[in-house]
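Q: Given only this backbone (89 positions), what sequence would you predict?
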């Protein structure tokens, strides 16, 4: 019965080494990508981040007429034109 147990242990050791090697390869790939993003491409992403930080956009506030519950106009929109004349000094 010794040879069967020995074969199982050998298979387990081989599978363990295979999984350990695959994990090592995955870790190396992730580490290389982190190095590329954080060290090599840092400046490019820093500029893009700064451009995304502030976005100026002019928003026109919604205006309209205001009615009470009976339908009576409380506030409306009217055009007002002002003319200021400044005499020459």
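A: Predicted residues:
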């Amino acid at each position: 019965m010794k040879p069967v147990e020995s074969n199982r242990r050998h298979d387990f050791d081989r599978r363990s080494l295979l999984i350990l090697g695959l994990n090592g390869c995955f870790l190396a790939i992730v580490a290389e990508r982190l190095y590329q993003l954080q060290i090599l491409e840092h400046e490019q992403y820093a500029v893009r981040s700064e451009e995304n930080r502030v976005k100026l956009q002019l928003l026109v506030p919604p205006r309209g007429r205001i009615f009470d519950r009976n339908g009576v106009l409380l506030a409306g929109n009217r055009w007002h034109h002002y003319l200021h004349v400044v005499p020459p000094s």
